[in-house]
Every structure is written in C-alpha cells, then in structure tokens.
Amino acid sequence: MTVASPPAAGPARQFAVLAARNLRQARVGRSIGLTVVFPLTFFAGFMVVFHRLMADYGIAYEQFLPPAIVVQTTVLVAMSACYMVAGDARSGLISRYRTLPMGAAVVPAARLVVDAARAAVAVAVILVAAVVVGFRFTAGAAGAVGFVLLAIGFAVVLAAGCAALGLGARDPEQAYSALTLPYLVLTTVSTAFVPVDAFPGWLQPVVRVSPFSAQVDALRALSTEGADQRVWPALVWLLVLGLLFGFAAARSFRRTR
Amino acid sequence: MSTVTQASLFAGRNLRRFFRAPPALIYSFAFPVLLLLTQYAVFGRIVGDGDRQHYLERLAPLVVLSTAAFGSPSSAVGFLRDLTGGLVDRLRVMPVRPGALLVGRLTGDVLRIVLIGVLTTAVAMLLGFRFRQGAAAVVGFFAVLALFGAMWAAIALWRGSGPGDEESLPPSLTGPATLLFIFSSGFVPVSAFPSVVQPLVRANPFSTATEALVGLSSGGPVLAPVLQTLAWVLGLGGVCLLVAVRRFARRTAR
Q: Which GO CC annotations does the UniProt entry carry (chain A) (predicted)?
C-alpha cells in the first residue's frame, strides 16, 4: 500500500514557514524587552545622566549618543539570536530540520532575515526616540538610508557569529551570559559613549581599532556630513567579520547533530 | 539539630553550588572587575573633571555595591528552583525547620556578596583606591556592604518565591538594578543631573550606600548615609523578606 506524498513545498514556501516561526519565537520570548525596551531605557538614562557633563566637555550628546545606542541595539539583537539558536539546537529542532527535504540555505536564511527585520524595527524605534530629543540627519536622505542599512548589516553579521556560538552551546542561558562580558567591554571601550581623547593615552590605540568604534563613527558620519572616509573602516570590518562569522556559522551548522 | 546548624548547612550548600559552577563563578567575579575597569577608563576623565582618581573614590564603592544587585537574578532563580524542583517537598518529610532554608539562602548570599566585594575592592586598590579612615572604617565599609547585600538577598527571595519563571525573573531584576546604578551619585555627581531628578538621585539606595562607603574609605559624612541605607535595608528588605516568608510558609504548609 502506498500513501501519496503531498507535493513538496518550494524553497520560497519553506523559507516563509521557517521565517514566520522564528518571528513568533521572537515575539513570545524576552527579545522585545531586551532589544527595544532596554535600549530605550538606557538611552533615556544616559541622556539624563551625561547631557550636562558632555555639554561641558563640548559635545552635543543628543547628536553624539543615538548612533551608539543603535549599535548597542544591533548587538543585543544578535545576542538574542544566540539565545534562540541555542534553544533550537538543544530542543532538537535544528536536527529535525536536517531530516527534512529542505535546501541547505533555508534554515540560516530564515534566521538571518528575521534578525535583519528585528534589527530594523529596533533601530526605527531608537531613531524615533532620538529625533524626539533633538537628533537630526543633516546629510539628507541618502545618508539616512546608508545609516539604516549599515546598522542592519552589522546586526546580521554579528547575528551570524552569535548563531555559530549558539549552535555549539549546550545551555542557552550560559551561551547568553558568556556574551555579556565581551559585550560590556567591546561597547564601552570604543567611541560609543565618549570621544577617543577621553580615554587614558595607552588605551586610545585600542579604542581606535575597535570594530565598534568603526561602526559608531561611520554612523555618526552618515548622520552628519554624509558618506566620507569614516565609513570605510566600518565597511572593511563588516566584510572581514561577515566572512569570518559566515564561515564559523556554516561550520557549526554542518556539525550540529 | 538546631535551626542555626540547619541554616548554616543550607548556606554552605548554596556557596558550594556557587563555587562548583565555573562559568557562573567566573562571570560573578569578572563582571564587577570589568565594570570597574571600563567605567574608570571611559568616564574617568569626563566625570572626574580631568582627575580619574577623584572619580575612582566614588566609582569603586558603587561597583562594589553593584555586586549585590547584579547577583540577585541568579539567586532568585536558585530559590525558584528550590521551590519548584522538589527540594522543599523533600524537606517536608525531614525534621528540618522550613525557615532554615530561607535563613541559609540569606546568609549564603551575603557571604558571597562580601567575598566578591573584597576582591573588587582589591582590584580598585591596584588602580589607586585607598582606605584613609583607619581599620574600624574598613570593617564598617564591609558591614555596610553586607547590609546592602542582605537587602538584595531579600529582594531575590521575594522575586524567586513569586510569580514568574526562569526566563522572566532575571530581566525583572537586572533592569531596575541597571537604572538604579546609572541614576546614582557614585556614577556621576548629583550636580550633573537635571535639578528635577536630583532628589530622586539622592534618595536612591545605591547613592546612600555609596555615600556611606565613600565616607568610610576616602572620607566624608558617615552617620547620615549609613542611617539612610539602614532605612532602605529595613524598609524594602524587610517587606520583601516578610512577603517571601509568607509565600514560603504557605507552600510548606500544604
């Protein structure tokens, strides 16, 4: 006796099903609080705490801080991807996917496209809040579009790296808390919150080469003077990290049992 | 076996569990140290008005205190697991006073907080932080930390015994703790805040405890900030502990 198998879904349909599932997962979990509420609270807190001190130092913090909050938000989006991927790996969902007749790229694509969408929403919320307190795009629409695209690109590249880590992790909580220390160090030891000259002299070279400084400085350029030479380091970092993390993610994905 | 012995057994159990989970252990010690180093490097010049050592005198006490707050999520989750994982049910068939578990948790948490606080203080001293008020003040410094730690341990018991699961508990504690940390007089001077929020910054338990620790290390007023901190510990900590005890009693009576 044979059972007629239903017609196989095409790659586009497979992608849509997986992406929709990842979106639902993000909605029920803690990711909205983490990627939207936390950065907004942090933004408000830092504006209140540092606005006066930075003005004394000669910096308009309402223009200086939002790119940093945008970078912080994209990092949090990527970190929550690690948590979700680790959960999927532990529950056996990833292994289950492998037994299904699906294209090899469908699972990673559904992950990264959803992360890009989550980053876009989070960045949009931050930008609205930033404009309310006085942040402006003075380089026109092209600069603004470049700003958003660069921010989302950074989120996707980091999400690939975090997914690689999450696939190899046994415990989502542990994988996530392992990321919080590098997160703390990398975001603060950069030009995100203060300019490079506020750091101790010996630390300034480290601050200058940080990929987070590159990203924040490029976003600052795109929101003020437009695309200038400050954008190149960010693009180079994006390419290097994209290759590195993409390779790492592909490797751990193949190795996941 | 007396209640005290029982409680100390539970305190010992919690400390052993803490030391036997290497990732969490490394995180508990590394987080305050990295927080101290990064904030010192990033904000020292701007907040200290050019003088990093001046900033360190206030930042180090604040970071030492933050170990109490940022350890509370894992402590709350630990208590939740005791309650839901069968430990409490098992204890009900044994000649153990239920209160011993609560007292043990509280004591274990305070010991852990003071231990991490001592290590963080040692790192701050490498950067140039100094105790200038004599030996009694050093004891007072860590006594205030222990009191502040008891308040956060009570908060963890309250959250761990209440509604919420392992996923929702940690952010419900780290969120407010982060805000209190930022809006405190240890992070930036009160005068840098907009005047509307200055009274709130002064009343923040992190500010009162920081002022007390500054007074007991670098020098400054001690009595008033210690009394304010004591009011927070007895008020907020007391209420949290009472609620936790009631919830716990209801659970163990069933």
A: ATP-binding cassette (ABC) transporter complex
B167 → closest Cβ in A30, A38, A46: A30
Instruction: Note whether B206 and B65 are within 8 A (CB).
Output: yes
Q: Say yes or no: A185 contacts chain B, CB-CB below 8 A.
A: yes
Interface contact A50-B24, CB threshold 8 A: no
Q: What is the model's pLDDT at position A36?
A: 82
Of A82-91, A120-129, A172-181, B151-160, least confident by mean pLDDT is A172-181
User: From the CA of A110, how many Å to the nearest CA of chain B?
Assistant: 24
Question: Residue B188: its chain A contacts at CB < 8 A?
Answer: 49-50, 53
Yes or no, beta carbons of B42 and A199 under 8 Å apart: yes
Give A178 to chain B, closest Cα distance, Å: 8
Distance set, CA A200 to CA A71, B45, B69, B123 (Å): 23, 8, 29, 18
What is the Cα gyration radius of chain B?
19
Residue owning tokens 């030009």: A191
Instruction: State which amino acid sits at residue A245.
Output: F
Give the whole-angstrom CA distance, residue B45 versus residue A194. Answer: 10
A44: closest chain B residue by CA: B179
3-state secondary structure of B65: helix
Which chain B residues touch A180 with a CB distance below 8 Å? 27, 31
Q: Which of A43, A47, A50, A189 to mutate to test the interface with B (most CBs of B within 10 A)?
A: A50
- Where are any strands of DSSP class E within B69-221? none
**Around A63, how many Cα atoms within 13 Å sit in the side-chain half-sphere?**
14
Closest among A45, B29, A49, B205 to B213, alpha carbons compared: B205
Please report the ipTM that was assigned to this predicted complex: 0.79
Contact: A185, B194; criterion CB under 8 Å? no
CA distance B156 to B162: 10
Interchain proximity B188–A53, CB inside 8 Å: yes
Q: pTM for the whole thing?
A: 0.85
- Under DSSP, the state recorded for A36 is I
Residue of chain A whose alpha carbon sits nearest to that of B184 = A49
In chain A, domain spans: 29-255
pLDDT confidence of residue A4: 63
Q: Which residues of chain B have pLDDT under 50?
A: none
Contact between B99 and B2 under an 8 Å Cβ cutoff? The reply is: no
